[in-house]
Amino acid sequence: MFGKTITAALLALHALAGIASAQDAKGMRGSSSFYIGAGTQRDEGIDRSDDTPFVLGFMHQPANSRLIWGADIAREGTMLDSTYGRTRAIENGTSYNLLVGRNFVDRGSFRLDAAVILGLRETVTSCHASYLGYRCYADRSPDTEYRGNFGVMTAVSYDALMIGMRITEESAQTLVGIRF
Question: What is the C-alpha separation between 165 and 176, in angstroms, rounded?
Answer without folding.
Answer: 9
